[in-house]
Specification:
The protein is mainly alpha-helical. It has one domain. The protein has 7 helices and 4 strands; from the N terminus they run H-H-H-E-E-H-H-H-E-E-H. The strands form 2 sheets. It has a two-stranded antiparallel ribbon with strand order 1-2. Strands 3-4 form a two-stranded antiparallel sheet. The longest helix is centred in the middle third of the chain and has 19 residues.
């Protein structure tokens, strides 16, 4: 459960998802308050114990969020990628949605700066953002506060996707994947040392 302020933040995000199509919503920046709200809900979704597909068991101490929650700059990037994933889902670009998500997670793993717990949080932040923008969660009143729950009903006004928006989302994901996968350009080779020849005056030649 969260306070009314955070509820208002998630409410703004839900309104953005409902009123705007992929092209227009993607160009709108979220406020710090909205980013923090998404981070808070993502933290609530992080389990105490998680088993990854490769069998690795990740345990999370939920009493120490500061050791798991990533900086806002990283969270904002995760949300930005998740918004593109959500729009791909709305536009029925399933393969592109997967590629967008996997590219982002591989990039974060490659940084070798996050713990398993932090990577799990990043994953949950991406997941919750996608669920929010695709109408899979909704706000309900509980004890005077706003609480987010899974929405099993069909959204009253589900996001739509035009052919133009579909093409734009597809192009953006392909560009993102290609840019991330492209190897960094090799540094320019240093110019080869040029052999120098000392020319002596004829009078000094033996």
């Amino acid at each position: 459960m969260i306070g009314n302020g955070a509820g208002a933040g998630i409410g703004a995000i839900l309104m953005l998802a409902a009123c705007c199509g992929p092209a227009s919503a993607q160009n709108k920046d979220l406020s710090d308050k909205s980013v923090l709200t998404l981070m808070q809900y993502a933290w609530s979704l992080v389990p105490n114990k998680f088993t990854s597909p490769d069998g690795k068991v990740i345990e999370v101490d939920k009493s120490k969020p500061s050791e798991v929650v990533v900086p806002m700059e990283t969270a904002r990037e995760a949300i930005k990628v998740a918004r593109l994933s959500a729009y791909a889902q709305v536009c029925d670009l399933i393969e592109e949605q997967r590629a967008n998500y996997h590219t982002f997670m591989k990039r974060e793993e490659a940084k070798a700066k996050w713990t398993d717990q932090q990577l799990l949080f990043i994953n949950q932040l991406h997941l919750f953002t996608v669920m929010t923008l695709t109408g899979k969660v909704k706000l309900v009143e509980k004890d005077g506060d706003k609480e987010v729950i899974l929405n099993s009903d069909k959204p009253e006004k589900a996001p739509t996707c035009t052919d133009t928006e579909r093409k734009r989302v597809e192009t953006q994901i392909k560009s993102y994947v290609a840019a991330t996968a492209a190897p960094a350009p090799a540094p320019a080779a240093a110019p080869a040392a040029t052999a120098t020849t000392t020319v002596r005056p004829a009078s000094q030649k033996k």
